[in-house]
Specification:
There is one protein chain. The chain is mostly beta strands. It has a single domain, classed as AttH-like domain (AttH-like fold, Beta Barrel), CATH 2.40.370.10. 2% of the residues lie in helices and 52% in strands. The strands form two sheets. Strands 1, 2, 3, 4, 5, 6, 7, 8, 9, 10, 11, 12 and 13 form a 13-stranded antiparallel beta sheet that branches. Strands 14, 15, 16, 17, 18, 19, 20, 21, 22 and 23 form a ten-stranded antiparallel beta sheet that branches. The longest helix is centred in the first third of the chain and has 7 residues. The two termini are 14 Å apart. The relative contact order is 0.18. The N terminus is likely disordered.
Amino acid sequence: MRNAARALLALGAGLGLALAPRAAMAADAAPRASAEVVPGSAFDAVVPGKPLAFPRDFGAHPGYRIEWWYVTGQLESPRGPLGFQVTFFRARDRAAEAIPGRFSPRQLLFAHVALADPSHARFLHDQRAARALEGLVSADTGDTDLRIDDWTLVREDGGYRARISAAGFALDLALAPTQPLLLEGDAGFSRKGPGDAHASYYYSEPQLAATGTVRIGSEPFAVRGRAWLDHEWSSALLAPGAAGWDWLGANLDDGSALMAFRIRGKDGSVLWSQALLRPRGGLAQTFGTDAVRFTVRREWSSPRTGITYPVSMALRLGDREYRIEPLMDDQELDARASTGTHYWEGTVGVDGAAGISGRGYLELTGYGAPVPF
């Protein structure tokens, strides 16, 4: 959070849950994801200067408080354009580490999936939550291999495969890298405030080539498009006074990759913001708080919750300006059953200076109420 602190959504509701996963009674082994953790030990710390190492850092980091793998993208289909989101969260519950037995919820996994179908004004989404149980619910430590029953996100053959069978729709997508990894912040150390205390390790894989099959209802069809993957892990909460965040990840048509976020205070102020722009084949340019500005162009109010979201924005990075417009307004997710909140996560078009445009995803949290950190 995507912010890349999006998985703190899971923290507020997740660490205290006594989850009863649908497959709990079928497992007979300790959770693989918690094997490296000393029970009761402090959360691992995010520190500057620690280099990320691959393929190890593609995998889970169970000693940290929270972690997420977040894939978004835009697909062309016979129905018209589609947007999709697949997110897996992992949270460490230190309190549960004192509870003996293989069903203790020491590591918790959550997943959100959504499909936007603008041509038919449909927005479909689903969610799952479970404690880690090897073979059924797991986050592998050696590489990206995430499973909640039959929902999976796995790195294979140099790319990724997402297989999700949700309520009313399904995704089976192959995601192939076309560009090098993008290390966010300072070589993967991404601050979420002015000091080192509020930070995460964070990398992205933009401009993924997406191919596969989408099913809506009983109708399957072939799709093709572009996607963006974020992987982030941290043990820090956001700064005191933070209410939520706005985040954008966009694949631009000229091959550039654009990421920007801001952390908003409860008083409406901007506590911290950052952006990164990498041209195709070039070096990334980072923009600090003074050079990043989000301006609301248009708002939308949910008919279900009454929450108002700034779904259309202008993003200024230094002397560059990008206009962000949703492909459809109603892309609000009700995640109360897993992460305890409502938020807006939507497919958007991005129009910028010199005619450069693209597609991306915009995430808006903490508008109905501050995110429960």
